[in-house]
């Protein structure tokens, strides 16, 4: 029987789309069609291991053009094999060393504190908007990109518009085009100067097989650092939502308990929706859980479904940071930023930065005296990427 194309169903259901389909197949791999192509959806730690197994899938033919033209750009996300390994080395060098992580986390904390001081005694502000501003300023200062007052809007637009074809998508395309052009100019300028330790300069002077990257590609990779750092604002708004719904989580955060803070951060990344699924294309005929996957088939790893599967996470709809205390997390278990080894595969090299920056923000939020005026903080799961509807409005008394 011919399968119905699921493109419209994804548009209508968002994060619930694949979990609903997989429920019908009792969690087994399910064949479907999307964008006119054959696909198989899989989920669970074994599925994540299969997805990241070297040689199973390729990425460059799997990413839809609207996602590349907004969210990712034509850089590391779209490379495979040796070209990916060479480019990934640049990100590992820039993002995975403790000094860089600490510098960005402490810059974020400092700018957040200054921002909060300026907001005391004022009217309601959106936690999402304020943290996006803080994070983009921190990322700009850290990397060496001059802030111009609208950088945060452009970076947020690139993330916000990748999964829709409406006005949000157009805004995302324009923002990317504008920023790639501007940052390519900065890369050219940095090349006329002596190298410094700043990421902008390091990307500008980075050699791959003895050659500099073309300036547009270097700009894409620079955006691949400042854009996702700003995207931590989605997680900060979710953290604000969690602190409001589960106020019992505040006390251990307020006391500066680092183990609990880490557990809280992991639970935010597990519980709340961000990446709905990841896609790759079968390089050859494959087989997973007794299901044949023909060469060329799209393989969709259901990230949101995996994080809400009771076989992996008991009582998955309970927000319980304690589930992460005193236990090791498997490489393929918690996968909001991909699975496997970030040095060799596609897993996010910014995961440690995300954890450090979000931890800094949640401890500050938990200590802060603020209240939520009446508002709608519902999270619409059909909107990708989702966020609390109001952006979490807060009032900070004098
Ligand atoms: C909101 C927080 C973040 C989320 C949810 C997130 C999520 C992801 C996901 C799902 C991937 C793709 C994994 C795959 O294709 O297998 C990824 C890749 C990537 N992320 Fe993140 N990320 C976040 C923060 C960051 C930060 C802070 C940085 C840099 C400072 C960063 C840089 C990257 C890069 C460069 C890649 C491409 C890796 C590759 O293709 O090898 N991300 N991220």
From TrEMBL:
One GO molecular function term?
Answer: heme binding
EC number in record: 1.11.2.4
Q: Which residues span the membrane?
A: none
Has UniProt tagged this entry with the keyword Iron? yes
User: What GO biological process terms does the UniProt entry carry, in alphabetical order?
Assistant: sterol metabolic process
Which Pfam family, any one of them, does this sequence belong to?
p450
The keyword Iron is annotated on this UniProt entry? yes
The protein's UniProt keywords, in alphabetical order, are: Heme, Iron, Metal-binding, Monooxygenase, Oxidoreductase, Peroxidase
Question: What are the required cofactors?
Answer: heme
Q: Where does heme bind?
A: 348
Which family does this protein fall into? Belongs to the cytochrome P450 family.
> Which protein are we looking at?
Fatty-acid peroxygenase
Species this chain originates from? Paractinoplanes abujensis
Q: What is the lineage of its organism?
A: Bacteria, Bacillati, Actinomycetota, Actinomycetes, Micromonosporales
């Amino acid at each position: 029987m011919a399968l119905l194309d699921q493109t419209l169903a994804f548009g209508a259901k968002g994060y619930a789309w694949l979990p609903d389909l997989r429920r019908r197949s009792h969690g087994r791999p399910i064949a479907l069609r999307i964008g006119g192509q054959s696909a198989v959806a899989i989920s669970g730690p074994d599925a994540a291991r299969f997805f990241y197994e070297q040689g199973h899938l390729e990425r460059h033919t799997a990413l839809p053009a609207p996602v590349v033209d907004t969210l990712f750009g034509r850089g590391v996300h779209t490379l495979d094999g040796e070209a990916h390994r060479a480019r990934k080395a640049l990100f590992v060098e820039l993002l995975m060393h403790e000094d860089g992580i600490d510098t960005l986390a402490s810059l974020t904390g400092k700018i957040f504190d200054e921002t909060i001081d300026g907001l005391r005694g004022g009217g309601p502000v959106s936690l999402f908007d304020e943290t996006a501003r803080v994070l983009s300023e921190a990322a700009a200062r850290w990397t060496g990109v001059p802030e111009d007052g609208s950088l945060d809007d452009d970076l947020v637009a690139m993330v916000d518009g990748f999964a829709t074809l409406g006005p949000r998508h157009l805004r995302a395309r324009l923002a990317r085009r504008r920023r790639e052009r501007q940052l390519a100019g900065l890369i050219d300028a940095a090349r006329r100067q002596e190298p410094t330790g700043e990421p902008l300069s390091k990307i500008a002077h980075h050699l791959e097989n003895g050659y500099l990257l073309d300036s547009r590609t270097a700009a894409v990779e620079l955006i691949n650092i400042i854009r996702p750092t700003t995207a931590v604002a989605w997680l900060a708004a979710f953290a604000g939502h969690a602190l409001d719904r589960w106020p019992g989580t505040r006390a251990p955060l307020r006391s500066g308990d680092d183990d609990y803070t880490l557990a809280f951060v992991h639970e935010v990344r597990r519980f709340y929706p961000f990446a709905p699924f990841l896609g790759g294309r079968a390089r050859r005929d494959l087989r997973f859980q007794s299901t044949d996957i023909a060469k060329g088939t799209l393989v969709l790893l259901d990230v949101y479904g995996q994080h809400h599967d009771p076989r992996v996470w008991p009582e998955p709809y309970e927000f319980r940071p304690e589930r992460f205390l005193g236990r090791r997390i498997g490489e393929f278990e918690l996968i909001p930023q991909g699975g496997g080894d970030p040095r060799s595969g596609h897993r996010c090299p910014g995961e440690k930065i995300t954890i450090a920056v979000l931890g800094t923000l949640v401890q500050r939020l938990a200590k802060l005296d603020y209240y939520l005026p009446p508002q709608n903080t519902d999270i619409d799961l059909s909107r990708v990427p989702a966020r609390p509807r109001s952006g979490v409005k807060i009032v900070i008394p004098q």
